[in-house]
Amino acid sequence: MDYQYIVVEREDPIAVITLNRPQQLNALNWQLVGELADACEALDRDEACRCMVLTGAGDKAFAAGADIKEMAGQTPVTMLTGEFNAWDRIRRVHKPMIAAVGGYALGGGLELAMHCDLIIASENAKFGQPEINLGIIPGAGGTQRLARTLGKFVTMEMVLTGRTYTAQELFQLGLINQVVPQGQHLERAKEIARTIAEKAPIAVRLGKEAVLAAFETPLEQGLATEKRLFAMLFSTEDQKEGMAAFVEKRKGEFKGK
Ligand code: CO8
To answer: What is the value of pTM for the model shown?
Structure first.
């Protein structure tokens, strides 16, 4: 498919999606977010792809937020009907997604990174929710996902002061998986993606589903979900293969069946 604002590169079994508006620090206009949702859904359906990496073009930004110039003239109605559907589509992707962040991940850029399942950052990456400086608040899940990951007090500081945080600070607070030397974020994210892509695809999918259930359900219900998904995996060929490979002292070959 032809996209104007993103680039999709297949390196089966992984794929890299690059936000591609470097002159505008990859600011997320409506078309870009729609294209991204289309690409994520297409890769989600494609069996040859087992893990996605999301990154930004250029060395200055992952994404410096939603496109302020496009947002400036919006109304409540256009904001409600315009972009949210695409964000929800990204949220519902079943395959694992890794954000590879170099430079700024601000506002909607940080929220997009948090739609992913792991975040790998270059040591020069800078994060924040500066919406308060524009007279608004985060609108693509920032208040909720940050509060669930960092707790109330750090989230309040981020949302109410709009301050920028270094990758190291957020690593220490548990929002970022790894901080790597400048410029190595994409390679590291791809390495991790390839590791995940070797695993049994149905187990990976259900593992993601089970972890995300922890954010949406009370413990009792989350434990029941995990138990059901765990039991279900015993109907897969990959479970038989994985356990046989262990016993036979060889590497398992998983087929997603
Ligand atoms: N939107 C539009 N254009 C942008 C954005 C943005 N978010 N960020 C940067 N740009 C543009 C600049 O306007 C500039 O364009 P031009 O050359 O045409 O003037 C170009 O990118 C380069 O930017 P700067 O010259 O500003 O670069 P600096 O290195 O001086 O500064 C900063 C970098 C600090 C990142 C600065 O650009 C900045 O503060 N950007 C805005 C950051 C921000 O406030 N982000 C939050 C936006 S609001 C948001 O994300 C809400 C999400 C809601 C999601 C839900 C939607 C449904």
So the answer is: 0.97
